[in-house]
Amino acid sequence: MRKFFVLLIALMVVFVLGVQKLNVSTWGFNLDLLDKNITKPFLEKYGIQIERELGNNSVRLSKLITQKDNPVIDVVHFADYFAMLAVKNGLLQPIDVSKLSNYKDIYDFAKDPIGGNYAIGYTVYSMGIVYRTDKIKRAITSWKDFWSKDVAGRISLPDITTTQGPVMMMHFNKIFAGNAYDPELKAAFQKVAELKKNVVTFYKTSSELINLFKMGEVWMAPVTRFSWGQFLETGLPLAWVVPEEGMLGFTNVLCIVKGAKNLDGAYKYIDFLISYEVQLAEAMDLVDSPVNVKVKVPPEIAEKLTYGEEHIKSLVFYDIKFIVENYDKWISKWNELIAQ
Questions:
Q1: Predicted TM-score (pTM) above 0.85
Q2: Does 3 score more than 60 pLDDT?
Q3: How far apart are CA 177 and CA 280, in angstroms?
Q4: Collapsed DSSP state (helix, strand, coil) of residue 200
Q5: Residue 2 has pLDDT above 70, yes or no
Q6: Burial of 43 (0-12, 13-18, 19+ CB in 10 A)
Q7: Among residues 59, 291, 120, 42, which one has the least CA distance to residue 73?
Q8: I need a labelling partner for 70 at 20 to 30 A (CA). Which of 179, 186, 226, 327 fits?
Q9: What is the rounded (10 degree) CA torsion for 291, 295, 298, 304?
């Protein structure tokens, strides 16, 4: 009841003083939970109404490009790769982190994930290996296990056009040649070309991969942690593996659009999203894994998130700028050697 009256008072203040709006570009997932955890408490605390523009990364990036000379959006949510593309197109402005009171409470990898202070990581997710324990009797321990004979014809890997694909290839190059930053990724392309005859498909979405597991066509694959809960819901006997070479780490980030009209609101919004209260609420609802180190969740929640000291320590992050610089070349090479 108290919250209702506080919200009512906030709405009355907004009505009297005029609605202050913050235009936010983001994905269209979990909107009811985002309203509960972010939109309503943000309005209640700051009297600022969040107006959302929804879409996937590429569609929203295209809109920012067309609006470059007269930006509509104040804050944009992106996967780190697309944030780097936005930097390349001159669409973002550096963030003054001294204006973020909660900045000190987030993991170091989230503080400047794409360089130049153009982004703040507000969620993290891992990619590890998932396999059917009823089909594969031995323990899977390494990314190299994808090249084992006993899983041939029963594996899947992410397509290079996915967010995880290029990072996966850099990790393979590090594993097989000791250097993730070879612009040609020679070792990775050679090894994946050798492997492709044993790959059921190079998947593009988590839902596609889950269906392949359900149908029994795939027994082992790299899987993102944010989809792990959906895999568990299949009821299949599955195991999550932290490979000895480490899991891949990714962040989703918040950025301020260059020329943002509500700059003060943009800083309030970013600080709000990395706050203990919002990070805890989002984690407990299984919306996102927290980057705020103060957040603690119970074991039944933790097992579905990228969470916990050992889990976080195992993450390997790669330079997104290097991926953007070489992406087109890798796509051409993939089409020539793998997709044929």
A1: yes
A2: no
A3: 40
A4: strand
A5: no
A6: buried
A7: 59
A8: 327
A9: -10
